[in-house]
Amino acid sequence: MDASCADELRQLAAEVTRMGGLAEAQVADAVDCLAKRDTGMARQLIERDVRLDAMQADIERRAIALIASYGPSGVDLRRAVSAMKLAMNLERCGDLARNIAKRSLVLADADPTTIMRAIERMGRLVSSRLNEVVDAYAVSDFDRALGVWRRDEEVDDHYESLFRELLELMRQDSATVQTGAHLLFIAKNLERIGDHATNIAEIIHFEITGEELTAQRPKWSSLDTPPIEDLAL
Asked: Per-residue pLDDT averaged across 148-162, rounded?
């Protein structure tokens, strides 16, 4: 491999890792501002989201330029392509964290509920999954990434349980509909962050092995729970 290409690939991977650290912080802070009803933290988080957008665009530009300049093949090509895919998933995690922060502003004065605490627990789980998979990428730990992939259903189980509890709560008490709707969307955003963490695990697997993970993700059936957008509240 060309020494310049190798150096640029290392720099690209380091930038993806830095972006992963920022995405981790955004998700963790989104959970914190919801739990603590910290509107100041929420507003700062929303403002910081542009940094992830800029990093994603920069990583994509650099990866494309590297491919065009050096024409890498094999694992080097996979590393460049994976950097772009990882950046895209991390940017989406940031967008979802921003969405949670926005809804936490609306919920700052809402009455606390046991379901709110369950959402906080789900948030901690999702945050730890993202942290684990970003760390796996940083050290090319195939087994650790695969472990995140295999535990994807844990986040889905949390979401399914929260979905049903919130729906039942809103059906029993119409006064909870507004708060419940925001919590439903927050739970869905967390579930999607979990999916992006699983996507990242799959990308790491492909980068290291050159093979796609062809097995079906360990999930509950999506037929069990309708999309939030389809709810008639």
From this structure: 92
